[in-house]
Amino acid sequence: MVDVARHAGVSIKTVSRVINNEPNVQRQLAERVLASVAELGFRRNHLARTLRSGQSTATIGLIIEDLANPFYSTIAAVAAEVARQHETLLITASSEEDPQREQQLLRDLCSRRVDGLLIVPAGYDHAFLRPEVEMGTPVVFLDRPAGGLLADTVLLDNRGGAQAGVRALLERGHQRIGILLDSVSVYTMRERVGGAQEALASAGIAYDERLVADGVHDPEGAAAAVARMLTAPTPPTAFFSLNNRITVGVLQELWRRKSRVEVVGFDDFELSHLMPQRFTVVAYDTRQMARTAADLLFQRIAGERSWPRTVTLPTALVERGLS
Amino acid sequence: MVDVARHAGVSIKTVSRVINNEPNVQRQLAERVLASVAELGFRRNHLARTLRSGQSTATIGLIIEDLANPFYSTIAAVAAEVARQHETLLITASSEEDPQREQQLLRDLCSRRVDGLLIVPAGYDHAFLRPEVEMGTPVVFLDRPAGGLLADTVLLDNRGGAQAGVRALLERGHQRIGILLDSVSVYTMRERVGGAQEALASAGIAYDERLVADGVHDPEGAAAAVARMLTAPTPPTAFFSLNNRITVGVLQELWRRKSRVEVVGFDDFELSHLMPQRFTVVAYDTRQMARTAADLLFQRIAGERSWPRTVTLPTALVERGLS
DNA sequence: ATGAAAGCGCTAACAG
DNA sequence: CTGTTAGCGCTTTCAT
């Protein structure tokens, strides 16, 4: 900037004024400065600008589990979109479900003085963020609640969705429903299992452990679990799958066996309408969830000081697959 | 940092030394500093640290077309992964195929002094980046070549892949092959069309404009184009689709018509193995492409000064779908 | 082994 | 309208 000032024969402050489109600069000078800027290939150092306290970095941070997963990349896309509307850039990082790493990344983002944080939490304890929050960095949690920290949170109605899904199967006369889930160590899974249990209980059906497969982490695992259950003495007449990766594995295994056992799966997914059998998904609007969270965050960044809110978004049953 | 120094009763420089794990600090003092850091909730300002010239920001920038698209989110995920191995964070932004916006974002990233740039270019002219490149910001282009700028580039063998795809159909006896593409304004589409034409030409088959559908931007458009071609006087006996969104639309329309016309499509996609008919994809390794580009970028960041390279990655034909 | 002082590139506050 | 000066929070000399 000093170079530009010298080149244009003005003071550094005038350059600053021109760069920032401040009023009260003679046209003539401004043009000279702009010319020098172009000639010298000057680009303002945004970091230095930010250093003066009270300035914003025009950057927000997003922590998700896995950027390659469509659910999370949708969230990232919406976050980037909303950020852009606020002339802000987005730093995205994946925690890979590792609380340790999540904390590390969060600290790193804070040391970069991001204007705000959007978090799909992997860990259970976010108390370590309290100093940052108190120092004025807004934080919004997404898809899962925070631990040990009061903050805005946007969740899905996992419990209600699971209840509706199981109820649909019960209404179609099913009594033996196989339930497949990833891991109860994940909040959303716990909620969904809870909802399923509630629906069974209120229909007066006992929760049969043999009809529950835990630790199903991928489609292959789901296929194996389905095969196991279907060859057991009293096989289920329907499956309730607790996420879309599992649903895909279930459908694949059913197709392989030419079985037409009914399926309800939590989460919609791309191409679900082209799957080889009719089934039902518990759907929701991922973009809306992300948008709600991002909007909340920017409201906070803009100075909103109200008490932290928790928003719960609805789910809906939708028919999918080729009939 | 001044506060910490005062609290610990040492100089600011000692705090700096402790924070940076520099040697030559008494255990005792170091512990006192660490205690103060914890108590005051101090977090080093990474931006200020970076301000001293010669320091790196430990941040790279990635420009893609659309973060919500699995192809790009895979690239972003790999970029973030490689970045993490270098203790670097990733700023991701979508250009939405808008050269204007791409340029704006790139300038913005440069003003944040990123250590390097990974670009899937939307525009045709990247000469405006030359000053930055000369000032030492490495740039690697991905999936499409740069315009007006010599830089490392990682591409796919679009031409060869398309040739192989069309050749496969010709070998199965097809003479009338319907070709569906998005827009020749996109580099990859031009290359793929070129490859298809070459394969037809070397088989002595004239390129029939009526068998080519341009401007197919989504599955619905693809379905409509397929419907149109199949009800024309001399319908094609096979389709070659130039991207996976189009392929999905083609498959859906064929299923609707209970037609078993053969299909070859460029790009593999998730769940392609569960599509309702056999078909062939021109597949490639997106992760490898992204990894190659990111590795190249970090080599440059580490000081590699060799002449810019262009790497072209191979494609392979793979059978997909339920038989 | 520790500290004092200068300076990174910019903006805020105040003069002229 | 324009310029001077003092910092922002940290690291890098260079003394001690």
3D architecture notes:
The structure is a homodimer of 323-residue chains. By secondary structure, the first copy, chain A, is of the alpha/beta class. Chain A contains 12 helices and 12 strands. The first copy, chain A, has helices at 2-8, 12-19, 27-40, 46-51, 70-85, 99-111, 130-134, 158-171, 187-202, 219-230, 244-256, 286-301, and strands at residues 59-64, 89-94, 116-119, 139-142, 152-156, 177-180, 212-213, 238-241, 262-266, 279-283, 310-313, 316-320. In chain A, the strands form 2 sheets. The first copy, chain A, has a 6-stranded parallel sheet with strand order 2-1-3-4-5-11, sandwiched between helices. A 6-stranded mixed sheet of chain A has the order 7-6-8-9-10-12, with helices on both faces. In chain A, helix 1 packs across helix 2 (12-19), helix 5 runs parallel beside helix 12 and helix 10 packs across helix 11. Chain A starts with a helix and ends with a strand. Chains A and B meet through helix 4, helix 5, strand 2, helix 6 and helix 11 of A and helix 4, helix 5, strand 2, helix 6 and helix 11 of B. Strand 2 of chain A pairs antiparallel with strand 2 (89-94) of chain B.
Number of helical runs of chain A? Answer: 12
| Distance from first to last alpha carbon of chain A | 67 Å
- Helix and strand element order of chain A: HHHHEHEHEHEEHEHEHEHEEHEE
Label the structural class of chain A. alpha/beta
Number of E strands of chain A: 12
Strand content of chain A: 15-25%
Helix content of chain A: 40-55%
Which spans of chain A of ≥5 residues are poorly predicted at pLDDT below 50?
none
Main sheet strand line-up of chain A: 2-1-3-4-5-11
What best-fitting shape of chain A do the alpha-carbon axes yield? elongated
- Which chain pair shows the most residues in contact? A-B, 52 and 52 residues
Largest sheet of chain A: 6 strands, parallel
Taking all residues together, what is the mean pLDDT of chain A? Answer: 96
Query: What top-tier CATH class of the largest domain in chain A fits best?
Result: Alpha Beta
Please state the CA-atom Rg of chain A, rounded to the nearest Å: 26 Å
CATH superfamily label of the largest domain in chain A: Response regulator
Provide the domain count of chain A. 3
CATH arch. level architecture of the largest domain in chain A = 3-Layer(aba) Sandwich
Oligomeric form of this entry? homodimer
What is the CATH topology assignment of the largest domain in chain A?
Rossmann fold
InterPro entries (chains A, B): HTH_LacI, Lambda_DNA-bd_dom_sf, Peripla_BP/Lac1_sug-bd_dom, Peripla_BP_I
Keywords (chains A, B): DNA-binding, Transcription, Transcription regulation
Organism (chains A, B): Phytohabitans rumicis
Pfam families (chains A, B): LacI, Peripla_BP_1
